[in-house]
Amino acid sequence: MHRHTPIKVRYGETDMMGVVYHANYLLYFEDARIDFLDALGFSYAERIEGAGYMSPIHDIEIHYKAPLRYGEAGVVRTSVAKNLPMRTVYRQQVYRAEDVSEGEAADGIEGDPGTEGTAAASCHEPHLREGATPLVDALVTVCVVERDTFKPVSLRRTFPDLYAKYEDIVEEA
């Protein structure tokens, strides 16, 4: 399953060359991960923060391949690359908006339309244009911690329904 989150580059997000300043992709990725959880029916604000937890970044590997410029529209494509009891690794890629076709799914969810109980159950998959390559490609590793102590907790034990959902949609080989 993938979630496509639209972005529009604002002037203040660019550097003197008119391209997105590299650190601003981290903000796009964070918005896209929240959108991804919302698409699964698992509100970050309500289910994670509301229960007294947070989900900080543990590690990030990012490759910048081509720029996105002021005024351009882009899409962050988010999926689960690895589901571990103590960490989740998301693959997050930025494409130009014209590289993502508007399938029958207006909400940007990709997935198996026959999968019961998923947010993608009634959606058709938006597709990448043939030959489309990501402008930015990242693996973002997050963990879940107790808000008050910052002590890591097991996603599998603390949020078993989310962990099980990730098991169903993970893309690891």
TrEMBL record:
<comment type="similarity">
    <text>Belongs to the 4-hydroxybenzoyl-CoA thioesterase family.</text>
</comment>
<feature type="region of interest" description="Disordered">
    <location>
        <begin position="101"/>
        <end position="122"/>
    </location>
</feature>
<dbReference type="GO" id="GO:0047617">
    <property type="term" value="F:fatty acyl-CoA hydrolase activity"/>
</dbReference>
<protein>
    <submittedName>
        <fullName>YbgC/FadM family acyl-CoA thioesterase</fullName>
        <ecNumber>3.1.2.-</ecNumber>
    </submittedName>
</protein>
<dbReference type="InterPro" id="IPR029069">
    <property type="entry name" value="HotDog_dom_sf"/>
</dbReference>
<keyword id="KW-0378">Hydrolase</keyword>
<dbReference type="Pfam" id="PF13279">
    <property type="entry name" value="4HBT_2"/>
</dbReference>
<feature type="compositionally biased region" description="Acidic residues">
    <location>
        <begin position="101"/>
        <end position="110"/>
    </location>
</feature>
<dbReference type="InterPro" id="IPR050563">
    <property type="entry name" value="4-hydroxybenzoyl-CoA_TE"/>
</dbReference>
<dbReference type="InterPro" id="IPR006684">
    <property type="entry name" value="YbgC/YbaW"/>
</dbReference>
